[in-house]
Design goal:
Number of helices: 16
Low-confidence stretches: 1-11, 321-325
Radius of gyration: 32 Å
Mean pLDDT: 86
Distance between the termini: 56 Å
Structural class: alpha+beta
Number of strands: 21
Largest sheet: 6 strands, mixed
Strand order of the largest sheet: 3-2-1-4-6-5
Strand content: 15-25%
Shape: elongated
Length: 447
């Protein structure tokens, strides 16, 4: 991210040249890119479209008519449509209908999701890499106040990002007054959304009642706010760099699964623990406290991760989008006793079971087996008579004795017969009760 020095911040005025400089701060070679502009018809978005046209940039325009304000909504659409027609710019329109199921509340959230879905569809269809919105400095101030009231931390107080996953906001350094002045100087047609004058929503209440009083307190309030945001962003980036370094020190493994040293991480501040764990979706303070006092085997879930406590390790296991297979897998329904040997190859289902070594080979006396044979997960109380060991052993104790990790246990499947008796723990040990003898005539082989 590029930060402007204090002098540059205070002297910045909206002109084509300063706008272009802001765009160049966000992406390299902006003249070579393709853009989709979100244009509502208001002064800020119409100025945005005008400057893009004046700079000769390659762009298309998208507009959503929400049908919320009757003729006013249609007039907004006409201003944008006329600009695009006059300047030979491709225009995309979405008109809200009854099929969109407008909610009785949360209108703003519904509208935001609807338009961004629309923008994404256009970008994919037209191969437009960047979406550009007309957020400006006053929007920054409103967002700062909203986030301040929500105790959102340094990230929220750092404001709206100027480049957020290829959503560009090149007007963020310019005030609403500067945008109005630019529109007037260049005779740019725009529409005023009168609903913004109502204080029905929190943002409108802040915009109409709180911000004017703040601006009255200091002639340079917005300029100083811009400077403070720059400092906050630099502080945020510095803090994040430190978090990355600490995370490296407490990381045991970052290959198949991310594993953190629980004891080392617990020595860090609550802030550091929160910042590291929230990357995997664990962002509730009370839950984080429980993670560090939980016993081995405890599990915690976020939207995309399972966190397993294993002694002094925090193991993060990414939840697969596909539903985990937990039902029994039938290997063979019955044995054709006309054959002397039948072989079952696990290769075709190896990804559904686990990594099995190529040398894996179990042989059973088929007459000792009750069919069908199945694969399933371990159950409480499971036991077997493992080859090479004396007597009976519970599978849970077998896992402990073999020092099989929690993650390995997740992948292990149990081979059972039609009576649900354990024939072996794949790929570790076969049950010796069903193995070949000198009297064996029919062989079932699993490889």
């Amino acid at each position: 991210m590029v930060y402007l020095c204090t002098k540059e911040i205070l002297s910045l005025m909206l002109e084509k040249s300063t706008f272009k400089k802001q765009l160049e701060n966000l992406i390299a070679f902006p003249e070579n890119q393709h853009y989709l502009l979100a244009v509502s018809g208001g002064a800020d978005s119409m100025v945005l479209a005008f400057i893009f046209k004046a700079l000769g940039l390659n762009f298309q325009v998208a507009h959503v008519n929400y049908k919320l304000r009757g003729e006013d909504s249609d007039s907004d659409q006409k201003v944008v449509e006329d600009f695009c027609f006059k300047n030979e710019i491709k225009f995309h329109l979405y008109e809200v209908s009854e099929q969109d199921k407008k909610p009785d509340n949360s209108i703003q959230l519904w509208a935001r999701e609807l338009r961004y879905d629309f923008f994404k569809q256009i970008q994919e269809k037209e191969n437009l890499e960047f979406l550009v919105t007309a957020h400006h400095l006053n929007d920054q101030l409103e967002t700062f106040i909203i986030n301040l009231s929500k105790a959102s931390g340094i990230k929220g107080l750092s404001g709206i990002p100027a480049n957020d996953n290829k959503i560009l906001r090149p007007l963020l350094h310019f005030s609403k007054d500067e945008i109005y002045d630019f529109a007037k100087e260049n005779n740019i047609a725009y529409r005023e959304d009168l609903s913004n004058k109502k204080s029905d929503y929190l943002r409108n209440k802040i915009r109409n009642e709180l911000v004017p009083k703040l601006l009255e307190t200091n002639d340079h309030f917005l300029e100083n706010f811009k400077k403070s945001l720059s400092y906050l962003n630099q502080t945020k980036d510095f803090v994040q760099q430190q978090i990355v370094e600490i995370e490296k020190k407490v990381t045991i493994s970052n290959k198949e699964n991310k594993i953190l040293d629980k004891e080392k991480l617990n020595l860090e501040s609550d802030f550091v623990k929160f910042e590291i764990l929230k990357k995997c979706g664990f962002n509730k303070v009370e839950e984080i406290k429980k993670i560090f006092t939980a016993e081995t085997g405890s599990r915690f879930f976020s939207a995309h991760y399972q966190l397993i406590i294993n002694r002094n390790e925090l193991i993060f296991n990414e939840l697969k989008k596909k539903t985990e297979i937990t039902e029994d897998l039938i290997l063979i329904q019955s044995f054709d006793f006309n054959e002397s040997t039948i072989e079952i190859d696990l290769t075709d289902i190896i990804d559904r079971v686990q990594e099995i070594p190529e040398t894996f080979r179990w042989e059973f006396d088929a007459k000792k087996l009750i069919f069908p044979l199945k694969l399933r997960k371990k159950k409480n109380g499971d036991y077997f008579y493992p080859i090479g060991m004396k007597g009976r052993k519970k599978i849970a104790k077998f896992f402990r004795d073999e020092k099989i990790s929690i993650l390995a246990k997740e992948k292990i499947w149990i081979l059972t017969d039609g009576n649900d008796s354990v024939l072996g723990v794949i790929p570790f040990r076969q049950d010796k009760r069903y193995t070949l003898t000198e009297k064996t005539q029919k062989v079932l082989r699993i490889v």
